[in-house]
Amino acid sequence: MPTSQYPLPSGLGRSTTSEEALGKADLTGKLAVITGGYAGLGLETVRALSKAGAAIIVPVRDVDKAKAALKDLPRIEIYPLDLSAPASIDAFGREFAAEGRPLDLFIGNAGVMATPFAHDDRGFERQFATNHLGHFQLAAWLWPALKRSGNARVVALSSGGHRFSPIDFDDPNYQRRTYDAWKAYGQSKTANALFALELDRRGAEHGVRAFSVHPGSIKTELTRYVSDADMEAIGFRDADGNIPAHIAALLKTIEQGAATTIWCATSHQLDDMGGVYCEDCDIAEALPADTKELRGVMPWAMDTNAAERLWALSEKLLGISFE
Predict the structure, then answer these.
(1) Rounded Cα–Cα distance for residues 290 and 281 (Å)
(2) Tens digits of per-residue pLDDT, 203-224?
(3) Could you tell me the domains of the chain?
(4) Does 185 qualify as catalytic in the annotation?
(5) Is 281 strand, coil or helix?
(6) Total-model pTM
(7) Which of 174, 185, 225, 277 is catalytic?
(8) What is the dihedral of CA 96, 316, 5, 126, to 10 degrees?
(9) Strand order in the sheet with 31-35
(10) Which residues pair with 57 in a beta bridge?
(11) What angle separates helix 63-70 from helix 40-51, to the nearest 10 degrees?
């Protein structure tokens, strides 16, 4: 059963750094796969877990950039992979599966945000395809290795932006409705949370537990498609282009932003738990859909029926099955 969506409390908080969240965790002999692990939050996540002794596979779109970013870290393996290209995911998946290694940790960190309207070659909307379906397809390849571990964790990077939209099951790929970049982003981040919820339900009996994470508001490469006008539209800038005080108070450093991912990946406070949305190094509070607070998790991102429905839709769209 999923863990109840209530703060523990953990004793940590918004200003906790990745180093502090890691504590004395020892990951010697453990293997992790981390997407997007060569820039921003992903790079900080790789750095922290490497320090704890983990061996880390980093699938990347830009191999040269990844080699430059990761050259000083030990036990790093870099493989080409593009989450928006199914053939690329399959090529990586086959190569990894052939090695037969158990996998102890899978972190779906890579993503895009508020991109211009586009469909991929299969007709899938770009944000839904990259942020959710690409990771879903990759997770299907990694599933046997996660079960082989017997004590694995999966961390899906969601976002507070999930509040912008639930899943539109009638038109998830914007084939009929008018495109809205922020609602499309919100839908993809809701999908990340629901993916973790359903994966945890399926994986618990195999020792595979899953969590979704809101890292916080951090300035990273994720914002490369976002203009000041876009930020003003969602209240993150005022008419003069300045950050409002209540938003500035929420901003985190990259070290603070990676902390909740590290906590979900390593903390013994979460042993025998899973299926929850986390923020600020704790399980987030469940809030009503009409809340004005910029925290917590919306009802549609912890709906077990929606999670099962999304899983079935994802398998149908991709023509795959975890089993």
Answers:
(1) 24
(2) 999 999 999 999 998 865 555 5
(3) 18-318 (3.40.50.720)
(4) yes
(5) coil
(6) 0.93
(7) 185
(8) 80
(9) 76-80, 55-60, 31-35, 105-108, 152-157, 208-214, 276-279, 282-283
(10) 33, 77
(11) 50
